[in-house]
Fold these 2 entries.
Entry 1:
Amino acid sequence: MFMHNKRLQYTVRVSETNPGLANLMLEQFGGPQGELAAACRYFTQALAEDDPGRKDMLMDIATEELSHLEVIGTIIAMLNKGAKGELAEATDSEAELYRKITGAGNDSHVTQVLYGGGPALINSGGQLWNAGYIDSIGDPTCDLRSNIAAESRAKIIYERLINLTDDPGVKEALGFLMTREVAHQLSFEKALYAITPNFPPGKMAPMPQFARTYFNMSEGDGDTRGPWNSDENFQYVGSAKQAMAVDGGSGLPEVMLQPGQAQAVEQLAARTLSDPESDPVTGADLGSGELPTEKAV
Ligand code: MN
Ligand code: MN
């Protein structure tokens, strides 16, 4: 079960309203790296998890992410409060209200006009939140790796938002939210390495002859060697030509068709056969004014 506590996880102090800043904060409310995506990601993973330790951790972090959603949503609501009241009560002239929600690079008009200044489940560009932001696959080593990446992305978005405001209360609350993503990343890393072995993911062994091969597939200057393709770590295949048909076969595709299927495919190919000897006059030729005289029709 869930319970709600009327106190926030971190106190929100907003110095002055700012609908443009509120709009940018939506990135962490209804955006792909935002708190709703994080909460839903860990909550759904926790429901299906059979390992008692991971289940407990995922449920703890999912619940904390909902608490973060409450903090960032409250910041957005506070920043929007001024414009919300003024627009609802028409306290200014039309021109002045218009300027307030669209002026100085402030594109908060959708939030104000459509959503009434409330924190909507959209990102800062107005894109609707959707479950496609969550890429859980139901394998713990894959999902933990994805969670680690999600936390690191969330941390970067918070850094960018912190750099966009000089409001000390907003900066501080965002700093807390950013810091918690770092702590979550650490927990997910520990949980990943608490599974041994954790690489490669899954149960099937990779094909040994290709599992530690590096194919240098790009032609031209600039090939660089590093630990990602070093001779210590990989069998380095230096040219793309050596990467053709590495199985030793022809490299040409084959498929077995039923007799009726083979006949139909041949009929189709015959019916749509191109004539390389032809040079047909087309509409583009006729319209171009460049038709050779001997071809004039
Ligand atoms: Mn969070
Ligand atoms: Mn997190």
Note: The chain has a mean pLDDT of 94.
Entry 2:
Amino acid sequence: MDFLKELTGSHSIKNICVLSGAGISKESGLKTFRDQNGLWENHDIYEVASPLAFKNNPTLVYEFYNQRRRQLLSDEVTPNAAHIKLGELEASGEYTVNIITQNVDNLHESGGSKNVYHMHGELLKARCIKTGRVYQWLDDLTGESRCECCHTKGNLRPDIVWFGEVPHHLDEIQQILLDCDLFISIGTSGLVYPAANFVTMAKSAGAYCLEINPHPTNNAQLFDYTIDKTATEGVIKIVENLLHIS
Ligand code: APR
């Protein structure tokens, strides 16, 4: 059965925009932000993910992200079927596929996707607070770490967009949303802006808007259709349908 054709009718699909959130990486063993009553790995998220937190307690913030980085680089965390299927969809060349992710992990890239926009930064990067230069960073980051640009201790911070900071790639993201004809939101609670508003932008530009989430979200009513399944189940269904496998 052509599941998507039934949903979208005569709507033609060539240009696909995926918005992913923490839920897509849950089946890879990474915790989401809000599933544990606002506690992220036993911390209040504002305590570890804000410029004020970094100013008041840099050691805690460095260590928090060091633990996340070590976990991401361990053998335990690998891309799941949702990441891999999205990589296959892009590689098929049948569609233009852009992934806007709120996630700071690298699992979309490990799953084979190339067009990935990390709007909230990347765990495997560090940024100099004086020059803005960004470095690939696989080791622990501390107040003793030095950047190659100014060689001064304490100038490097995780390249993560914290609460109150401006997300990355907003100009490119706007264009992607204007150009897409299928928008798929996967594993995000729809509570954090501007990402929560992307469905409205895509919809206004004429896209068919799908959501994959096993639980009700804050902006569910804005989507044309919700697949209330996990990311792996939902993505396999959609991608196999788009690639005419099922
Ligand atoms: N598959 C798909 N979705 C899932 C799964 C799963 N297996 N398990 C849980 N989810 C859903 C939850 O139902 C929830 O809606 O994933 C969502 C996770 O929501 P949040 O924890 O709020 O994560 P996210 O939406 O990515 O958060 C947005 O908030 O703290 C900031 O910067 C941080 O990027 C983050 C942003």
Note: The two ends are 7 Å apart (CA to CA).
